[in-house]
Amino acid sequence: MSDYFSDLSTLRSVTGAASTPSSGVKKTGTTNLDMTDFLSLMVAQFQNQDPENAASTTDMLNQMVQMSMIQAISNITDASTMMYSSSLVGKQVTIGKLDSSGNIAEVVGTVTGAGTYNSKPVVFVNGERYELSSIMAVGTLPATNSST
Description:
Layout (H helix, E strand, L loop, with lengths): L1 H14 L19 H13 L9 H31 L4 E7 L5 E14 L2 E6 L2 E4 L3 E4 L10
Antiparallel strand pairs: 1-2, 1-5, 2-3, 3-4
Helix pairs in contact: 2-3
C-alpha cells in the first residue's frame, strides 16, 4: 500500500497534477495526496489506459475504499486530538519551552484556549500559543532532587 502511494506521489510530480483546495490556493511543496488528487489520478488512468488491457474496476474500487478509510481514520484522529486539547481548558499545565541557550525551561500556567495553527493542535497558556506536543504534564511537575 505504501508503495502505491509513493508511486502516486511520483506520478503527481511527473505529470504536474495538483488539486486546488477550496480556498483556491494551489498547493505547493507538498507530497501529501488527498482524495481529490487520488480521484484525478484515477480518472487520468482510465482516460489513458490501453483498451486491450483495461484496468480492473474491482482494483480501482478497492483503492477508493482504502483511500476513504485512511481519510476517515485521519479525521477521527484529528477530532479526538481537538477534543483532548479542548478538555485542557481551565487546567494547569507544564509546558517545555526551549530558551535562548537551548535548555528546556518549564512554563506553568492555565490553559485559556485551544485550537489549531498550521494544521497542528495548539493550546494558549499565559497569552502565548504552544503546540499540544510541548505539554510535559497536566499540573505541575514535582521538584527533582539534584543531590550528587
